Amino acid sequence: MVLFFQQIINALAIGGIYALMSVGYALIYSLLRFTNFAHSVAVTFGSYAIYVALTHITSNFYLGLIFGVLVGAVIALIIELTAYKPLLIKNSARSSLTIIGLGISTIGTNMIILIFSSRFKVIPTDFGGKSIQLLGAYISVLDIIIIAICLVMLLGVFLFINKTRTGLAIRAASHDLDSTALMGVDVQKFLSIIFILAGAMAGIAGVMLATKYQAYPSLATTMTNKSFISSVVGGLGSLGGAVAGSFILSTGEVMISGYVSSELRDLFSYGLLILVLLVRPYGLMGKRFDDKA
Amino acid sequence: MKKLVALLLVLAVTFSFIACGEQTETEAPSGGTNGDEIVVGFIGSMTGDDEIYGYVSWGAITMAVDRINEAGGVAGRQVVLKQYDDRADGVEAVNCARKAILNDGCVAIITSSSSAGLISINSVLEEYKVPCIAYAIGSELVTQTEEGETRPYMFRVNTTASQCTTVIGQYAAEVMGLKTAAIFYDITRTDGADGVEYFTKGFEEKGGSVVQVEAYKSGDVDFHAQLSALKANGGFEAIYSAAKYIELGMVINQMKEIGLETQMIGDRSWMMLDLFEVVGDNLEGAVFPSDIDFNDEKYADFNNEFQELWDVHPGVAVGTDAYCIQDACMILWNAIEKVAEAGEEITGENIRDSIEANSQNVECFTDTITIDPQTHNVRRSMGIFEIQNQNFVQIDSYDVTFG
């Protein structure tokens, strides 16, 4: 029982980070109907931002977190303005956006190596290894912070999308972006807001990843693959689905690794992806979309 | 008209490729000497996630070549060093080997490629009869085929997994008195599987018993699930893990997070300066094998010179590479000198024969080294180290025989 409880805690901590990243995929897909594979760049820059902040600017973790959020948001906005916007103006196929995103992802990783080298960077915090015991299981202080921040941020995004005028407009645009634009709505502004929001979430995820594991160039690539699967499982374009998919995936992975064999973990993850696409292509909570690619 | 021009262009490009292909397939290596120079290739990962390994090795081999050239060269000839980036990719390693031999006329290659890369390039080495010396990989399959035949053009100067991992397994049971152990290993890496095989062999030979085995995959960052299972099942006195560089810190810190405290037994890759930056004092008392101790006073001048030239300590990421690559160079220089002394032409094939025939008790940078003509593996000393107060302290030494 203690092991089961410990594994649930492990799953919550990983699932929270998956959720922060998969919500970013969902936000952009909901408006543009394409998967932003450059999302990992904002995560990566977020993870190095906290390193730079805590080694050169401040010793306060939460100020470093804010810096990471800002860097993630700025990177996402730059990517949107310089790469995606020109293609959208030309009314390019969505597949072009997907492909350019893949290219940016690779460029982003290589830029990090050029700037910081491939050596890992340890984030100097006071959390290292500190845990509390609960019902026989160990919960690290950092995991508690991660779960709390993830919940607050996810709640914030849901409130923003569902309770604000801007969120209402974004939801309207997500139904039919082209028609919304024809009605004179400044669609570009909403796109930028969405990219900033997704980038900020990616920045937080990057900060959490780096603090929990260390920062290194391919960290985000590995993790965003899993969050992409979460997003597909939950339903591309659905924020609630992305969160649900994240926790389904993390729980499944942890239970398989802990009780069966870690050799089967990725079989489970990618098997789940294939199964969902075969049985319910729009995911658990997604909507049917016409493929614009 | 446009279609015709396009067709002609395609045909022209196709024929030019065919012509090039024929030329490269039939053309023998140039012999590797450009006038008075001897061309040697270095293959390593100069970009990508493993860039730091390539950077350190390149710095060290550059220093070795500069040193020998300042001393008059090898057999009176200057050594020219060429760099090839395999990005830690086995396929790219093959391309690098072909380029080194066919384009640049390298007569020998020194490489830190992955075990997959090293195994793959054997076909190129054998095709063009050029020897290669590895200095950073433990897999038996680098120098031996699965059928146990020695790969004729591949040599190594570092200990194999069967040598050093078997020794640490024996040491754990015999000297440390441990009766039970668990293993936590990387299932996707050859040296991970080697670690399981040879640690179990050594440990059980001396009366120990491996009671649990858990695995992870390269690129994983979260090990809580497997470590929690290890802890819950219990029944072991120590964990052997060959976790490397990035994974190592994460494994050790996550063990602490879930309250898994036990004797740790490690791999030679633990001899790295970055270790304490990431694990702090979480590895106190851990033991591991290593071919060298980079804190040894005899390396002080080298360490300082390296730091000055390359702005980083040579033991930064994989602590032994910068030192063992010096050994690889010295084995090569010795073999070439012997070829020249015999009045033979300095060709890849003659150098290969000379490495096999003349690498007995060669005074190298780290040790007196012998390469077994039968297996192409090394005989050298290695140490057992314990981590004490965030320092590597040698507590025992072994003279390992041919694997």
Please give the largest β-sheet of chain B: 6 strands, mixed
How many beta-strand elements of chain A? 2
Give the overall pLDDT of chain B as a whole number: 88
For the biggest β-sheet of chain A, the strand order reads 1-2
Textual characterization of the structure:
- The complex is a heterodimer of chains A (293) and B (403).
- Chain A is mainly α and 293 residues long.
- Chain A is 76% helix and 3% strand.
- Chain B has 403 residues and is of the alpha/beta class.
- In chain B, 43% of the residues lie in helices and 20% in strands.
- Chain B has helices at residues 2-26, 51-70, 90-103, 115-128, 161-174, 190-205, 224-233, 245-257, 275-279, 300-310, 321-341, 348-358; strands at residues 33-34, 37-44, 78-85, 108-111, 132-134, 154-156, 180-186, 209-216, 238-241, 263-265, 287-290, 362-363, 368-371, 378-388, 391-400.
- The N and C termini of chain B lie far apart (67 Å).
- The model of chain B is unreliable at 4-31 (pLDDT under 50).
- The interface between A and B is large, with 43 and 38 residues.
